[in-house]
Amino acid sequence: VRENAIQTQGLRVLETNQKVSFEIDSESDIRGPQATKVCIIN
What is residue 4's DSSP assignment? Predict the structure, then answer.
């Protein structure tokens, strides 16, 4: 996932060693797969 795609969702800084889960929708954009949901795993 591109950095600007993450920033578009308002998620800018992750703490060190924090795990992140992305849901990818391969049909959402003609440019290719896009992250539709970003989840921080505690």
Answer: H
